[in-house]
TrEMBL record:
Gene Ontology biological process terms from the UniProt entry: carbohydrate metabolic process
Domain called IPT/TIG: residue spans: 71-145
This protein's name: IPT/TIG domain-containing protein
Compositional bias segments (type: Low complexity): 49-66
Biological source species: Mycetocola manganoxydans
Length: 321
């Protein structure tokens, strides 16, 4: 029987199972090779996942944050009550803007200049009255957020502004204290239009005047308060700088011009009104008037000469800007 000897690490090895010396040498060599190989693999693995400085490299990012659509400013912040001011709207991601409204009225000529700029032309103020109006910039049906609520200040700045603002205040509230009321002597329509022309900057003269009308109705000229005489003065060589336009030239009519009406179509005007609105609807120029005698702010031209006075005629006097 073999003799059991205690191994140096505390277990017994039978002499009968002791390996030959040559086998023990080969075993030690294989173990050494395995140790070296595993060390090499370990070193290769670290060098593949570690930067020269010992820190792990971070993935690079090439994406940029998406800009959020927003309106930040409008310039100028105020303009004429009769409209026409070109506005510049600034912000971010505005390239999808489709409309601009001021005080609920659509602006015209809306143009996206770039993703940070939109231009638009301001409409007239409601009834040509000075006021602060809210601005809404929209992309489709969605309003573009504003950094702060923006408003546009309508102001009376020009002679036309003064004329139209006055007319839309006094079409139903007669300024009798200053100009009298001529309804008792045939109608107040010419008196009303003349008042608006004073606001426009016209100056009374020996032919066209209303002096202290509140004190005496006799102190006014026919050219001021009587429609046929006003027409004759407009048409005379000594009259104001105005140009006659026919119904066929209605596309040349503008706010602040004068409309004269011949209800009987006998070439004698019966009524006069102030042009208060001009719009193209389905290719047709639609014109509205502010007036006394059947008082109204936007009386429709075509209704007046077809429904109200069938067979009637009208023409216009264009007032220089």
């Amino acid at each position: 029987m073999g003799v059991h000897r205690r191994h140096s690490e505390g277990f017994f090895v039978s002499s009968s199972t002791r390996r030959p010396a040559s086998l023990r040498v080969r075993t030690r060599r294989l173990a050494a090779v395995a140790l070296v190989s595993s060390s090499a693999l370990l070193w290769v693995g670290c060098s593949a996942s570690t930067s020269p400085t010992g820190s792990r490299p971070q993935p690079s990012s090439t994406s940029t944050p998406t800009e959020v659509a927003a309106v930040t400013a409008i310039s100028p912040a105020s303009g004429s009550v009769t409209g026409g001011t070109t506005l510049t709207i600034s912000g971010t991601a505005l390239d999808e803007v489709t409309s601009v409204t001021i005080g609920g009225v659509p602006a015209t000529d809306v143009v996206v200049t770039d993703d940070g700029t939109v231009t638009a032309v301001a409409p007239a103020a409601l009834d040509f009255q000075p006021a602060d109006a809210a601005i809404v910039v929209a992309a489709g049906e969605a309003a573009v957020p504003q950094a702060e609520p923006l408003t546009y200040a309508y102001a009376v700045e020009t002679p036309l502004d003064k004329q139209m603002s006055y007319a839309l205040r006094h079409w139903d509230e007669y300024n009798s204290a200053e100009w009298g009321n001529l309804n008792s002597v045939g109608g107040d329509c010419a008196n009303f239009v003349s008042q608006t022309l004073i606001q426009r900057g016209w100056v009374q003269n020996d032919t066209w005047f209303n002096r202290n009308a509140a004190a005496t109705l006799a102190d006014w000229s026919p050219a001021w308060g009587y429609v046929p005489a006003m027409h004759d003065w407009f048409a005379s060589d000594n009259g104001p700088d105005v140009t006659r336009l026919t119904l066929d030239q209605r596309d040349q009519v503008k706010i602040g011009d004068i409309g004269m009406f011949d209800w009987n179509n006998n070439d004698i005007p019966d009524h006069v009104m102030l042009v208060s609105s001009v719009a193209v609807v389905d290719g047709v120029t639609k014109i509205g008037f502010a007036s006394h005698n059947l008082d109204g702010p936007y009386r429709d031209l075509d209704v007046a000469i077809t429904d109200e006075h069938p067979g009637g005629n009208a023409w216009f006097w264009s007032v220089p800007a």
